[in-house]
Protein: Succinate--CoA ligase [GDP-forming] subunit beta, mitochondrial
Amino acid sequence: MAASRVCGAGQRLLAVKRTCRPPVRCLNLHEYNSKRLMEEHGICVQRFDVAESPSQAKDAARKLKADMLVLKAQILAGGRGKGTFSSGLQGGVHLTKDVQVIEEVTKKMIGYNLVTKQTPKEGVKVKKVMVAEALDIARETYIALLMDRAFHGPVLVGSPQGGVDIETVAASNPHLIYKQPIDIFEGMTEEQALKMAQNLGFSGGVEQKAAKQIQLLYSLFLSVDATQVEVNPFGETSNGEVVCFDAKISFDDNAAFRQRAIFDLAAESEESDPVEAKAAQHDLKYIGMDGDIACFVNGAGLAMATCDIIQLHGGKPANFLDLGGGVQEGQVYQAFKLITGLAQVRAILVNIFGGIVNCAIVANGITKACRELDLHIPLVVRLEGTNVEEARKILDESGLPILTAWNLDDAARKAVDSVSK
Ligand code: GDP
Ligand code: MN
Structure:
């Protein structure tokens, strides 16, 4: 399963009632690759270059001949501005006039892990940085285009209060999140683009420029088979230009056959969601979601049913995970390590139906993982099928605080109860 997950804040901003089927599988590109595509489509981005070493970064900075520069660590997760590096450096986005500072700061970025709200606990290693001409931002807004199941098609989402705290805005001021479904046959009309530009607070003639950018973003969205194009900040400069300062584009896996160049580019630069890439290394089928109840299941159908039943009981799944049929104890351990490493997870629900899978192998993997990872969150386990008696014995005798459940409904209820306390 290729890189995927609900990427960026866009999906979270859509506060619409939805079933919790995993989203369309998609591939993400780094900011610099997304911006190259945007440039090709005539969208307004800053002049920039990419570097893989401090000296390259310094050269790139020199060549830009800009009054002000911005240095950005390139990882697939967002929230870099407020992130921390394993080198001790604070912030994955730095503004400076001095090319020497670009070199010095790059030294503390490349080769170190950057931890943000969206990365695993240990962070993601930075291999590249972007050096760009910094512009004076007068106002930061948010704009995204998403393919959304609830709207049966594309939806334009925007907010006049963009920037690093957009998710706080969505939580505390939901009326400042504007949504406009787009008719896939008619496309985006000029009126729709202009209305959104006005909702974002552009005025005095600048709204026309913003509307033009929004239309270009929609045409990019369609032509690259994106599932999401997110720009945050979608900013207004002090001289009235509208610029895409940050970009995140996700592409539909099903379109790989006609977007070969993009998918090859991603393969070359090893771009994939860090958590999903790790899961894939251990042969686990994993898709990250937004909730707090981690699911640990064998079989894709059962994994989806588990996600749905958690939702039915008022909870939110943190992931889709299919252990597969021939699961080994080592994989159970790795899967546990992966999901317990996610900051958002507050409970784990294990739902195993042992057909091919031997329940005792799963039970052994779970108890080993619980001890070694020093688990401190509720763990609800429902096991059924092959060798289940032996498995129950292993769990009972482990002395671990495991909540045993007798069926899927009971398990989901217990998991939801444990996080709502
Ligand atoms: P993120 O934290 O991963 O979303 O990274 P962004 O690229 O969005 O950068 C974070 C913040 O840095 C933005 O919200 C801006 O406030 C600031 N920033 C980024 N580029 C520039 C720039 O060219 N000029 C100025 N003044 N600020 C910038
Ligand atoms: Mn951003």
